Amino acid sequence: PSTSQVQKGLEKLSPAQVDQKTAEVVQYILVKDQKKVPIRRADLVKNIVKDYRTVYPEIIKRASRIFEQVFGLKLVEIDPKNHLYILVNNLDTPPSNPSPVEHPSNPKTGLLFVILGVIFMKGGVVRDKLVWNILKKLRVDSGLKHDEFGDVRKLVTDEFVRQRYLEYNRVAHTEPVEYEFRWGQRADMEVSKAKILEFMAELHDQDPRSWTQQYKEANPTHTSSQASSSSHR
Amino acid sequence: MSRQLGDSHRRFLQNMMTLGITNEQEAKALYQNCCETHKTQCAPDKLDEFIDAINSRLQPMFMQIRKGMSEENGHQYYALVNMAETDITRMTSDYADNELELFRKAMDLIVSSENGKVSSTDILNCTDTMTSKSLKKSETQHLLTRLVQEKWLCERRGEYTLSTRCIIEMEPYIRAMYQDQVKVCHICHNIAFQCQICENPLCGIKIHNPCVARYFKGRTDPHCPACDDFWPHEIPEVRGLRSQSKR
Ligand SMILES: [Mg+2]
Ligand SMILES: [Mg+2]
Ligand SMILES: [Zn+2]
Ligand SMILES: [Zn+2]
Protein backbone atom coordinates (compact mmCIF):
# COMPACT_ATOMS: atom_id res chain seq x y z
CA PRO A 1 0.00 0.00 0.00
CA SER A 2 1.13 3.57 -0.75
CA THR A 3 1.71 6.22 1.91
CA SER A 4 -1.61 7.89 1.19
CA GLN A 5 -3.45 4.57 1.33
CA VAL A 6 -1.84 3.87 4.71
CA GLN A 7 -2.88 7.32 5.88
CA LYS A 8 -6.46 6.71 4.76
CA GLY A 9 -6.47 3.33 6.42
CA LEU A 10 -5.24 4.79 9.70
CA GLU A 11 -8.02 7.35 9.70
CA LYS A 12 -10.56 4.53 9.79
CA LEU A 13 -8.98 2.92 12.84
CA SER A 14 -8.79 3.99 16.46
CA PRO A 15 -5.31 4.33 18.03
CA ALA A 16 -6.24 1.48 20.39
CA GLN A 17 -6.97 -0.81 17.45
CA VAL A 18 -3.61 -0.06 15.87
CA ASP A 19 -1.82 -0.58 19.21
CA GLN A 20 -3.59 -3.89 19.73
CA LYS A 21 -2.61 -5.13 16.27
CA THR A 22 0.97 -3.97 16.81
CA ALA A 23 1.10 -5.92 20.07
CA GLU A 24 -0.14 -9.05 18.32
CA VAL A 25 2.51 -8.66 15.65
CA VAL A 26 5.24 -8.21 18.28
CA GLN A 27 4.08 -11.33 20.14
CA TYR A 28 3.92 -13.38 16.96
CA ILE A 29 7.42 -12.39 15.90
CA LEU A 30 8.82 -13.07 19.40
CA VAL A 31 7.28 -16.53 19.52
CA LYS A 32 8.52 -17.40 16.02
CA ASP A 33 11.95 -15.98 16.76
CA GLN A 34 12.41 -18.32 19.71
CA LYS A 35 13.24 -20.97 17.14
CA LYS A 36 15.39 -18.44 15.27
CA VAL A 37 13.64 -19.25 12.02
CA PRO A 38 13.06 -16.31 9.65
CA ILE A 39 9.51 -14.94 9.63
CA ARG A 40 7.76 -14.68 6.29
CA ARG A 41 5.80 -11.52 5.68
CA ALA A 42 3.13 -13.57 3.92
CA ASP A 43 2.57 -15.67 7.07
CA LEU A 44 2.55 -12.61 9.27
CA VAL A 45 -0.13 -10.98 7.13
CA LYS A 46 -2.19 -14.15 6.76
CA ASN A 47 -2.14 -15.14 10.44
CA ILE A 48 -2.07 -11.86 12.32
CA VAL A 49 -2.38 -8.69 10.28
CA LYS A 50 -5.43 -9.93 8.31
CA ASP A 51 -7.89 -7.03 7.77
CA TYR A 52 -5.26 -4.49 8.73
CA ARG A 53 -3.09 -5.14 5.66
CA THR A 54 -3.59 -1.64 4.26
CA VAL A 55 -1.86 -0.20 7.34
CA TYR A 56 0.80 -2.94 7.40
CA PRO A 57 3.75 -0.54 6.84
CA GLU A 58 2.69 1.56 9.83
CA ILE A 59 2.25 -1.52 12.04
CA ILE A 60 5.62 -2.97 11.13
CA LYS A 61 7.21 0.44 11.74
CA ARG A 62 5.70 0.58 15.23
CA ALA A 63 6.65 -3.03 15.95
CA SER A 64 10.25 -2.27 14.93
CA ARG A 65 10.30 0.70 17.27
CA ILE A 66 9.07 -1.47 20.16
CA PHE A 67 11.68 -4.13 19.43
CA GLU A 68 14.42 -1.51 19.61
CA GLN A 69 13.16 0.54 22.54
CA VAL A 70 11.87 -2.24 24.78
CA PHE A 71 13.65 -5.44 23.81
CA GLY A 72 16.98 -4.16 22.46
CA LEU A 73 16.36 -6.10 19.24
CA LYS A 74 16.36 -5.05 15.63
CA LEU A 75 13.86 -6.34 13.12
CA VAL A 76 15.75 -6.86 9.89
CA GLU A 77 14.44 -7.76 6.47
CA ILE A 78 17.03 -10.24 5.23
CA ASP A 79 15.43 -11.12 1.93
CA PRO A 80 13.71 -8.16 0.25
CA LYS A 81 12.45 -10.38 -2.55
CA ASN A 82 10.71 -12.98 -0.42
CA HIS A 83 10.21 -10.58 2.50
CA LEU A 84 11.82 -12.56 5.30
CA TYR A 85 12.47 -11.00 8.66
CA ILE A 86 14.74 -11.93 11.55
CA LEU A 87 15.36 -10.36 14.94
CA VAL A 88 18.96 -9.57 15.80
CA ASN A 89 20.46 -8.29 19.01
CA ASN A 90 20.75 -4.53 18.91
CA LEU A 91 22.64 -3.97 22.15
CA ASP A 92 26.00 -2.44 21.47
CA THR A 93 28.09 -3.93 24.23
CA PRO A 94 28.54 -7.63 23.76
CA PRO A 95 28.16 -9.69 26.94
CA SER A 96 31.90 -9.35 27.70
CA ASN A 97 31.54 -10.27 31.34
CA PRO A 98 29.54 -13.45 30.90
CA SER A 99 26.10 -13.42 32.38
CA PRO A 100 26.08 -14.91 35.88
CA VAL A 101 23.12 -17.03 34.95
CA GLU A 102 23.84 -20.19 33.03
CA HIS A 103 22.65 -19.76 29.51
CA PRO A 104 20.91 -22.95 28.39
CA SER A 105 21.99 -22.63 24.79
CA ASN A 106 25.63 -22.10 25.68
CA PRO A 107 27.16 -25.38 24.46
CA LYS A 108 25.49 -24.95 21.08
CA THR A 109 26.75 -21.38 20.93
CA GLY A 110 30.23 -22.68 21.64
CA LEU A 111 30.00 -25.14 18.78
CA LEU A 112 28.69 -22.44 16.47
CA PHE A 113 31.53 -20.10 17.48
CA VAL A 114 34.11 -22.77 16.62
CA ILE A 115 32.64 -23.16 13.15
CA LEU A 116 32.31 -19.41 12.57
CA GLY A 117 35.89 -19.11 13.78
CA VAL A 118 37.19 -21.70 11.34
CA ILE A 119 35.38 -20.00 8.46
CA PHE A 120 36.72 -16.59 9.47
CA MET A 121 40.29 -17.83 9.84
CA LYS A 122 40.12 -19.45 6.40
CA GLY A 123 39.08 -16.22 4.72
CA GLY A 124 35.30 -16.58 4.69
CA VAL A 125 34.65 -19.97 3.16
CA VAL A 126 35.60 -23.56 4.03
CA ARG A 127 34.85 -27.02 2.70
CA ASP A 128 32.61 -29.03 5.02
CA LYS A 129 35.21 -31.83 5.29
CA LEU A 130 37.59 -29.49 7.07
CA VAL A 131 34.90 -28.48 9.55
CA TRP A 132 34.04 -32.10 10.33
CA ASN A 133 37.74 -32.90 10.84
CA ILE A 134 38.25 -30.01 13.21
CA LEU A 135 35.15 -30.88 15.20
CA LYS A 136 36.34 -34.47 15.42
CA LYS A 137 39.57 -33.27 16.99
CA LEU A 138 37.41 -31.48 19.56
CA ARG A 139 35.66 -34.83 20.20
CA VAL A 140 32.51 -33.82 18.39
CA ASP A 141 32.14 -36.52 15.75
CA SER A 142 29.59 -35.56 13.13
CA GLY A 143 29.03 -39.23 12.34
CA LEU A 144 28.06 -40.17 15.91
CA LYS A 145 25.26 -39.15 18.21
CA HIS A 146 26.60 -36.56 20.64
CA ASP A 147 25.40 -36.40 24.27
CA GLU A 148 24.78 -32.68 24.18
CA PHE A 149 24.08 -31.94 20.52
CA GLY A 150 22.42 -35.15 19.34
CA ASP A 151 22.80 -35.38 15.58
CA VAL A 152 25.74 -32.98 15.07
CA ARG A 153 25.54 -32.95 11.28
CA LYS A 154 21.85 -32.06 11.44
CA LEU A 155 22.43 -29.35 14.02
CA VAL A 156 25.13 -27.74 11.88
CA THR A 157 23.78 -28.13 8.37
CA ASP A 158 20.09 -27.82 9.22
CA GLU A 159 19.43 -25.91 12.44
CA PHE A 160 22.27 -23.38 12.20
CA VAL A 161 21.49 -22.92 8.51
CA ARG A 162 17.75 -22.38 9.07
CA GLN A 163 18.62 -19.90 11.80
CA ARG A 164 20.82 -18.10 9.26
CA TYR A 165 23.96 -18.43 11.31
CA LEU A 166 25.59 -20.47 8.55
CA GLU A 167 25.32 -20.86 4.82
CA TYR A 168 25.83 -24.37 3.49
CA ASN A 169 26.07 -24.76 -0.25
CA ARG A 170 27.10 -27.32 -2.77
CA VAL A 171 30.38 -26.53 -4.48
CA ALA A 172 29.90 -26.35 -8.24
CA HIS A 173 31.52 -28.96 -10.49
CA THR A 174 32.85 -31.33 -7.84
CA GLU A 175 32.75 -35.07 -8.17
CA PRO A 176 32.00 -36.52 -5.67
CA VAL A 177 29.77 -33.74 -4.40
CA GLU A 178 31.34 -31.33 -1.92
CA TYR A 179 29.85 -28.64 0.26
CA GLU A 180 31.15 -25.43 1.74
CA PHE A 181 30.30 -23.24 4.71
CA ARG A 182 30.10 -19.45 4.96
CA TRP A 183 28.82 -17.07 7.59
CA GLY A 184 25.04 -16.62 7.39
CA GLN A 185 23.23 -13.29 7.46
CA ARG A 186 22.38 -13.55 11.15
CA ALA A 187 26.03 -14.16 12.01
CA ASP A 188 27.06 -11.16 9.90
CA MET A 189 24.71 -8.96 11.87
CA GLU A 190 24.92 -10.46 15.33
CA VAL A 191 28.39 -11.84 15.79
CA SER A 192 31.42 -9.63 16.18
CA LYS A 193 34.50 -10.72 14.23
CA ALA A 194 36.71 -9.34 16.99
CA LYS A 195 34.93 -11.60 19.47
CA ILE A 196 35.37 -14.61 17.21
CA LEU A 197 39.06 -13.87 16.76
CA GLU A 198 39.48 -13.51 20.53
CA PHE A 199 37.67 -16.82 20.94
CA MET A 200 39.93 -18.56 18.41
CA ALA A 201 43.04 -17.00 19.99
CA GLU A 202 41.98 -18.38 23.35
CA LEU A 203 41.30 -21.79 21.84
CA HIS A 204 44.81 -21.86 20.33
CA ASP A 205 46.41 -20.05 23.27
CA GLN A 206 47.82 -17.31 21.02
CA ASP A 207 47.76 -13.55 20.76
CA PRO A 208 44.94 -12.51 18.38
CA ARG A 209 47.37 -10.02 16.75
CA SER A 210 49.50 -12.91 15.49
CA TRP A 211 46.88 -13.38 12.75
CA THR A 212 47.59 -10.07 11.04
CA GLN A 213 45.06 -10.35 8.24
CA GLN A 214 42.19 -11.45 10.45
CA TYR A 215 43.09 -8.94 13.13
CA LYS A 216 42.89 -6.14 10.58
CA GLU A 217 39.54 -7.35 9.33
CA ALA A 218 38.14 -7.77 12.83
CA ASN A 219 39.41 -4.42 14.08
CA PRO A 220 39.03 -1.97 11.21
CA THR A 221 39.97 1.71 11.55
CA HIS A 222 37.80 3.75 13.82
CA THR A 223 35.87 5.59 11.15
CA SER A 224 34.57 2.48 9.44
CA SER A 225 33.84 0.63 12.68
CA GLN A 226 31.83 3.59 13.93
CA ALA A 227 29.90 3.74 10.70
CA SER A 228 28.97 0.07 10.96
CA SER A 229 28.03 0.18 14.61
CA SER A 230 25.96 3.36 14.37
CA SER A 231 23.84 1.79 11.68
CA HIS A 232 22.58 -0.62 14.33
CA ARG A 233 21.24 2.09 16.58
CA MET B 1 3.15 5.34 33.47
CA SER B 2 5.52 4.04 30.90
CA ARG B 3 9.14 4.88 31.48
CA GLN B 4 12.22 5.30 29.34
CA LEU B 5 14.35 2.18 29.31
CA GLY B 6 18.11 1.91 29.03
CA ASP B 7 20.25 -0.87 27.58
CA SER B 8 20.57 -2.39 31.07
CA HIS B 9 16.78 -2.90 31.14
CA ARG B 10 16.84 -4.33 27.64
CA ARG B 11 19.64 -6.75 28.44
CA PHE B 12 17.80 -7.88 31.58
CA LEU B 13 14.67 -8.51 29.54
CA GLN B 14 16.58 -10.43 26.87
CA ASN B 15 17.99 -12.69 29.58
CA MET B 16 14.52 -13.20 31.03
CA MET B 17 13.28 -14.20 27.59
CA THR B 18 15.92 -16.94 27.47
CA LEU B 19 15.52 -18.07 31.06
CA GLY B 20 11.74 -17.94 31.44
CA ILE B 21 12.12 -18.01 35.20
CA THR B 22 14.85 -17.15 37.67
CA ASN B 23 15.11 -17.02 41.44
CA GLU B 24 15.55 -13.81 43.37
CA GLN B 25 19.27 -14.29 43.97
CA GLU B 26 19.98 -14.89 40.30
CA ALA B 27 17.75 -11.98 39.32
CA LYS B 28 19.73 -9.68 41.60
CA ALA B 29 23.03 -10.89 40.14
CA LEU B 30 21.68 -10.45 36.63
CA TYR B 31 20.44 -6.93 37.47
CA GLN B 32 23.88 -6.01 38.77
CA ASN B 33 25.57 -7.54 35.74
CA CYS B 34 23.34 -5.67 33.30
CA CYS B 35 23.98 -2.37 35.07
CA GLU B 36 27.74 -2.95 35.08
CA THR B 37 27.77 -3.88 31.41
CA HIS B 38 26.03 -0.65 30.48
CA LYS B 39 27.66 1.47 33.18
CA THR B 40 24.46 2.54 34.84
CA GLN B 41 23.76 2.92 38.51
CA CYS B 42 22.65 -0.18 40.37
CA ALA B 43 21.04 -0.06 43.81
CA PRO B 44 20.76 -3.58 45.20
CA ASP B 45 17.39 -2.89 46.80
CA LYS B 46 15.92 -1.35 43.65
CA LEU B 47 15.43 -4.55 41.63
CA ASP B 48 11.65 -4.36 41.82
CA GLU B 49 11.65 -0.74 40.62
CA PHE B 50 13.99 -1.72 37.79
CA ILE B 51 11.55 -4.47 36.81
CA ASP B 52 8.55 -2.13 37.17
CA ALA B 53 10.12 0.13 34.54
CA ILE B 54 10.43 -2.82 32.16
CA ASN B 55 6.88 -3.88 32.93
CA SER B 56 5.52 -0.44 32.15
CA ARG B 57 6.73 -0.94 28.58
CA LEU B 58 5.85 -4.63 28.36
CA GLN B 59 2.27 -4.20 29.48
CA PRO B 60 0.98 -2.96 26.09
CA MET B 61 2.42 -6.19 24.62
CA PHE B 62 0.43 -8.22 27.18
CA MET B 63 3.63 -9.39 28.80
CA GLN B 64 4.96 -8.96 32.32
CA ILE B 65 7.81 -10.00 34.60
CA ARG B 66 5.82 -11.34 37.54
CA LYS B 67 7.01 -12.36 40.99
CA GLY B 68 5.81 -15.46 42.78
CA MET B 69 6.74 -17.95 45.45
CA SER B 70 7.98 -21.49 44.96
CA GLU B 71 5.75 -23.97 46.76
CA GLU B 72 8.81 -26.17 47.19
CA ASN B 73 11.18 -23.87 49.03
CA GLY B 74 9.21 -20.70 49.71
CA HIS B 75 11.67 -18.49 47.80
CA GLN B 76 10.67 -15.71 45.45
CA TYR B 77 11.03 -16.19 41.72
CA TYR B 78 10.63 -13.91 38.73
CA ALA B 79 8.99 -15.22 35.58
CA LEU B 80 8.36 -13.59 32.23
CA VAL B 81 4.69 -14.25 31.57
CA ASN B 82 2.31 -13.81 28.76
CA MET B 83 -1.04 -12.25 29.63
CA ALA B 84 -2.75 -12.51 26.26
CA GLU B 85 -6.24 -13.77 26.79
CA THR B 86 -6.00 -16.97 24.83
CA ASP B 87 -5.44 -19.87 27.19
CA ILE B 88 -2.02 -21.40 27.60
CA THR B 89 -0.86 -18.91 25.01
CA ARG B 90 2.83 -19.50 25.02
CA MET B 91 2.41 -23.24 24.96
CA THR B 92 0.18 -23.31 21.89
CA SER B 93 3.07 -22.65 19.56
CA ASP B 94 5.25 -25.32 21.15
CA TYR B 95 2.87 -28.21 21.72
CA ALA B 96 0.43 -30.12 19.53
CA ASP B 97 -3.29 -30.08 20.32
CA ASN B 98 -3.34 -33.56 21.82
CA GLU B 99 -0.28 -32.73 23.93
CA LEU B 100 -2.05 -29.66 25.28
CA GLU B 101 -5.14 -31.75 26.01
CA LEU B 102 -3.07 -34.15 28.06
CA PHE B 103 -1.43 -31.27 29.90
CA ARG B 104 -4.87 -29.85 30.73
CA LYS B 105 -5.97 -33.26 32.00
CA ALA B 106 -2.88 -33.47 34.21
CA MET B 107 -3.67 -29.97 35.47
CA ASP B 108 -7.30 -31.05 36.25
CA LEU B 109 -5.96 -33.92 38.35
CA ILE B 110 -3.45 -31.72 40.16
CA VAL B 111 -6.03 -29.04 40.96
CA SER B 112 -8.57 -31.55 42.28
CA SER B 113 -6.00 -33.51 44.32
CA GLU B 114 -5.52 -33.10 48.07
CA ASN B 115 -1.77 -32.53 47.90
CA GLY B 116 -1.26 -30.84 44.53
CA LYS B 117 0.36 -33.89 42.95
CA VAL B 118 -0.49 -36.48 40.34
CA SER B 119 1.21 -39.79 39.62
CA SER B 120 2.54 -40.70 36.19
CA THR B 121 0.21 -43.73 36.20
CA ASP B 122 -2.84 -41.48 36.60
CA ILE B 123 -1.63 -39.27 33.77
CA LEU B 124 -1.02 -42.29 31.53
CA ASN B 125 -4.56 -43.47 32.24
CA CYS B 126 -5.94 -40.14 30.99
CA THR B 127 -4.98 -40.98 27.44
CA ASP B 128 -8.00 -43.32 27.21
CA THR B 129 -10.43 -40.41 27.50
CA MET B 130 -8.80 -38.00 25.07
CA THR B 131 -10.93 -36.32 22.43
CA SER B 132 -8.01 -35.41 20.18
CA LYS B 133 -5.63 -37.96 18.73
CA SER B 134 -4.67 -40.27 21.57
CA LEU B 135 -1.06 -40.48 22.72
CA LYS B 136 0.84 -43.75 22.99
CA LYS B 137 2.41 -44.64 26.31
CA SER B 138 5.90 -43.84 25.04
CA GLU B 139 4.71 -40.54 23.55
CA THR B 140 3.11 -39.58 26.86
CA GLN B 141 6.30 -40.36 28.72
CA HIS B 142 8.30 -38.33 26.24
CA LEU B 143 5.83 -35.44 26.58
CA LEU B 144 6.09 -35.52 30.39
CA THR B 145 9.88 -35.34 30.15
CA ARG B 146 9.57 -32.36 27.83
CA LEU B 147 7.09 -30.59 30.10
CA VAL B 148 9.56 -30.99 32.96
CA GLN B 149 12.51 -29.82 30.84
CA GLU B 150 10.59 -26.81 29.62
CA LYS B 151 9.66 -25.96 33.20
CA TRP B 152 5.89 -26.48 33.13
CA LEU B 153 5.88 -29.48 35.48
CA CYS B 154 8.14 -30.76 38.23
CA GLU B 155 8.71 -34.42 38.89
CA ARG B 156 9.75 -36.24 42.02
CA ARG B 157 9.56 -40.00 42.50
CA GLY B 158 7.04 -40.47 39.72
CA GLU B 159 4.77 -37.70 40.98
CA TYR B 160 4.16 -34.48 39.09
CA THR B 161 3.42 -31.00 40.40
CA LEU B 162 2.90 -27.70 38.61
CA SER B 163 6.17 -25.79 38.41
CA THR B 164 6.59 -22.38 40.00
CA ARG B 165 6.81 -20.85 36.55
CA CYS B 166 3.58 -22.56 35.50
CA ILE B 167 1.76 -21.33 38.62
CA ILE B 168 3.03 -17.76 38.21
CA GLU B 169 2.14 -17.65 34.54
CA MET B 170 -1.17 -19.47 34.69
CA GLU B 171 -2.58 -18.22 37.97
CA PRO B 172 -5.29 -16.08 36.30
CA TYR B 173 -6.18 -18.95 33.98
CA ILE B 174 -6.32 -21.47 36.82
CA ARG B 175 -8.44 -19.15 38.98
CA ALA B 176 -10.88 -18.67 36.11
CA MET B 177 -11.01 -22.30 34.98
CA TYR B 178 -11.23 -23.92 38.40
CA GLN B 179 -13.14 -21.30 40.39
CA ASP B 180 -14.75 -23.82 42.74
CA GLN B 181 -11.79 -26.09 43.28
CA VAL B 182 -8.93 -23.70 43.54
CA LYS B 183 -7.34 -23.33 46.97
CA VAL B 184 -5.96 -20.07 48.29
CA CYS B 185 -3.31 -19.78 50.99
CA HIS B 186 -4.60 -18.17 54.20
CA ILE B 187 -1.23 -16.52 54.82
CA CYS B 188 -0.05 -15.15 51.46
CA HIS B 189 -3.42 -15.24 49.62
CA ASN B 190 -1.86 -16.79 46.56
CA ILE B 191 -3.18 -19.88 44.86
CA ALA B 192 -2.05 -23.03 46.68
CA PHE B 193 -1.47 -26.59 45.53
CA GLN B 194 1.02 -28.18 47.88
CA CYS B 195 -0.32 -27.13 51.26
CA GLN B 196 -1.57 -28.16 54.69
CA ILE B 197 -5.28 -27.97 55.48
CA CYS B 198 -6.88 -27.20 58.85
CA GLU B 199 -8.68 -30.34 60.03
CA ASN B 200 -11.56 -28.49 61.66
CA PRO B 201 -14.37 -29.28 59.16
CA LEU B 202 -15.96 -25.89 59.78
CA CYS B 203 -12.68 -24.13 58.96
CA GLY B 204 -10.49 -26.03 56.52
CA ILE B 205 -8.19 -23.15 55.61
CA LYS B 206 -5.13 -23.96 53.51
CA ILE B 207 -1.56 -22.82 54.04
CA HIS B 208 1.38 -23.41 51.68
CA ASN B 209 4.05 -25.66 53.17
CA PRO B 210 6.69 -22.88 53.14
CA CYS B 211 4.14 -20.44 54.59
CA VAL B 212 3.40 -23.00 57.37
CA ALA B 213 7.12 -23.20 58.06
CA ARG B 214 7.45 -19.45 58.35
CA TYR B 215 4.22 -18.81 60.24
CA PHE B 216 4.72 -21.48 62.92
CA LYS B 217 8.49 -21.09 63.20
CA GLY B 218 9.55 -21.36 66.85
CA ARG B 219 6.03 -22.05 68.15
CA THR B 220 5.75 -25.18 70.24
CA ASP B 221 1.94 -25.29 70.33
CA PRO B 222 0.71 -24.38 66.83
CA HIS B 223 -2.90 -23.26 66.38
CA CYS B 224 -4.87 -22.46 63.25
CA PRO B 225 -4.68 -18.71 62.50
CA ALA B 226 -8.38 -18.76 61.52
CA CYS B 227 -10.25 -21.00 64.00
CA ASP B 228 -7.61 -21.41 66.71
CA ASP B 229 -7.95 -25.24 66.67
CA PHE B 230 -4.77 -27.20 67.23
CA TRP B 231 -2.69 -27.46 64.01
CA PRO B 232 -2.07 -31.20 63.82
CA HIS B 233 0.39 -31.36 60.91
CA GLU B 234 4.12 -31.67 60.99
CA ILE B 235 5.68 -28.22 60.75
CA PRO B 236 8.33 -28.16 58.01
CA GLU B 237 11.67 -26.39 58.51
CA VAL B 238 12.23 -22.98 56.94
CA ARG B 239 14.46 -23.73 53.96
CA GLY B 240 17.73 -21.84 53.88
CA LEU B 241 18.72 -19.59 51.01
CA ARG B 242 21.66 -21.81 50.15
CA SER B 243 19.50 -24.69 48.97
CA GLN B 244 17.85 -22.33 46.51
CA SER B 245 20.08 -22.88 43.51
CA LYS B 246 19.61 -26.65 43.59
CA ARG B 247 16.14 -26.67 42.16
MG1 LIG C 1 24.73 -3.07 17.60
MG1 LIG D 1 0.62 -19.20 19.09
ZN1 LIG E 1 1.14 -19.03 51.16
ZN1 LIG F 1 -8.80 -23.76 61.21
Automatic annotation (TrEMBL), chain B:
Q: Name one GO biological process term.
A: double-strand break repair via homologous recombination
Keyword tags: Chromosome, DNA damage, DNA recombination, DNA repair, Metal-binding, Nucleus, Telomere, Transferase, Ubl conjugation pathway, Zinc, Zinc-finger
Compartments reported by the entry: Chromosome, Telomere; Nucleus
Please state the Enzyme Commission number of this protein.
Answer: 2.3.2.27
Q: What's a GO cellular component annotated to this UniProt protein?
A: Smc5-Smc6 complex
Q: What class of enzyme is it?
A: transferase
Q: Which GO terms describe its molecular function?
A: ubiquitin protein ligase activity; zinc ion binding
Give the catalytic activity: S-ubiquitinyl-[E2 ubiquitin-conjugating enzyme]-L-cysteine + [acceptor protein]-L-lysine = [E2 ubiquitin-conjugating enzyme]-L-cysteine + N(6)-ubiquitinyl-[acceptor protein]-L-lysine
Query: Non-structural maintenance of chromosomes element 1 RING C4HC3-type domain location, by residue?
Result: 185-227
Query: What is the recorded function of this protein according to its Swiss-Prot or TrEMBL entry?
Result: RING-type zinc finger-containing E3 ubiquitin ligase that assembles with melanoma antigen protein (MAGE) to catalyze the direct transfer of ubiquitin from E2 ubiquitin-conjugating enzyme to a specific substrate. Involved in maintenance of genome integrity, DNA damage response and DNA repair.
* Homology family: Belongs to the NSE1 family.
Whom does it interact with, and what assembly results?
Component of the Smc5-Smc6 complex.
- The name under which this protein is listed is Non-structural maintenance of chromosomes element 1 homolog
- Organism of this sequence: Fundulus heteroclitus
From which lineage does this chain's organism come? Eukaryota, Metazoa, Chordata, Craniata, Vertebrata
